[in-house]
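User: Sorry, what's this?
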Amino acid sequence: MTPTEYHFLREIEKFNLDLYDAHLGWISPYFTAYKIYSKPDTKLFYLHDEAQGKLFEFSAERPDMLKSAEEYHNVVHAYLAIKLSNNIDTKADS
């Protein structure tokens, strides 16, 4: 997938990471500042920006493909592009 196939929907202002399942970004030979989570009751995903302490909800056009290091990097690149353009809705609760 390309970064444009991931769509960031909003920032989750209040969150408890214990309610989310670890998905990608956990096993790496180097430090990763971004972790991807999922929830069993939705097809959406969540990117946690550890440096900023923020959680962002996003969708994937093909969620079954979000399993590899390459796709992890595509999500991070999509997030950084959106972050630079400041185009994510903020202050949503989950």
